[in-house]
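dumping the sequnces here before i forget
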Amino acid sequence: MMPRLGLLEWARKRSPWMLHFNSGACNACDVEVVALLAPRYDVERFGVLNNATPRQADILVATGPATRQAAPRLVRTYEQMPEPKFVIAVGTCACSGAPFKTCYNVLCGVDKVVPVDMYVPGCPPKPEAILYGITKLLDLKNGG
Amino acid sequence: MILDTRFFFRVLVFPGFLFLFSFTLFCDWFERKVMARMQNRMGPSYAGPFGILQPFADWVKLLTKEDIVPEGAGGLALAIAPIISFSLLVLSMLYFPLDGANAFSNEGFEGDLLLVLALVTFANFLLFLLGWSSSNPYSGIGAVRIMTQFVGYDIPLTILSLGPAFLAGSLSLSRIASVQKVPFALVIPWVFAFFLLALQAELEEDPFDTPHAETEIAAGYWTELTGRKLAFVRFSEDLQVVFGAVLAADLFLGGPYGPAFELGHGLPIVWFVLKALFIIFMLEFVEAVCARLRIDQVVRTNWKLMVPLSLLSLALVTFCIPFVQSATGGA
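..and the predicted 3d for all of it:
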């Protein structure tokens, strides 16, 4: 039995706009994120739009480990997003730093820099997994 | 104007504000769906039946997001420009004879065609102010591009919209619509084609998408907009598309009068909506198959191609008027 959603929760759940940020990924996760937007997976079915600016995004899709160089930019991008905002760490590198975590220039996963709400592990995760992460996150955050 | 309930009903509910609001959201959904199908995608599917509530969900969500004003951004212009441009567009929509009469339940006046064009120009100027005052280089470039493009394409659009006005012998929107026994799109197809092209540029759709070219200048003039401002600017953009479609339907497709006009009055609003959706479909079709021009190409196309062509086609219309009037039994 689904709990009855208010208008606001319904709207937020149905219209999650995303911003993709690569803080040092090898591009595999990025290709999977882009595949989400392409006809085969077409996230616009769920109301997900890819935005060109952090000002209009609800979800920051972060790929790759947080490197020393990209970390301040990642934080800045996160701070530019309007509330309510969520972060999804896509890929094992974004979750934990994976093979790069001992590198001199890597600060482990993106959760060392910005608060992460959902982890989608995989190297790279399948588009279905990213989509599942997004929908799961929206369910959790909007009570239903 | 006497403040009676009928007046309020017509302005606020039908065919005024509430109708326009829902129709604009519906058109947004229609555009996105057409675009998605052209790209072999499904488009919005889960918000309401066939995703029809998707634009409404976006709108409600944007209204409730945090409203960020960037440091150094012009306060007043940034705060009121979205609302005023939205209001101007709604006001201009009220002048169309959507169900045979306009929202003020009269026949309009001689020259309301020019009034609505002027109102939309003004609304676009406010969008320029908005981009200019949000203290972001991308917004600034986007805003200047709006101005360059809009000022340029407003000229051919106005000249071309005079074609139907010449044929009808009137500058009144309802009169131009009502004299069309044969739609002007069939009588003067060349003007109709150029008009749609100029409209495409006016509405900033591909191939004239330069003011918010994502690959060059982030989101263009709305790069810094969040929350309520973005909600109203997005809505203004959608409303502008509806305005363009309704204008084209009124001038070239006979507005609220169906082919069965002789038989009975029918449902004028249904005809108007169908014709507007047809125009939107054509605009979206062109948008989906075209790539973006560079800004210099956009400007060159305007001044070297569209302006001379629109003047020539107007001259041709003037030449054709006696023949058309004798063929259709007088307009």
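Chain A touches chain B through 23 residues (CB under 8 Å).
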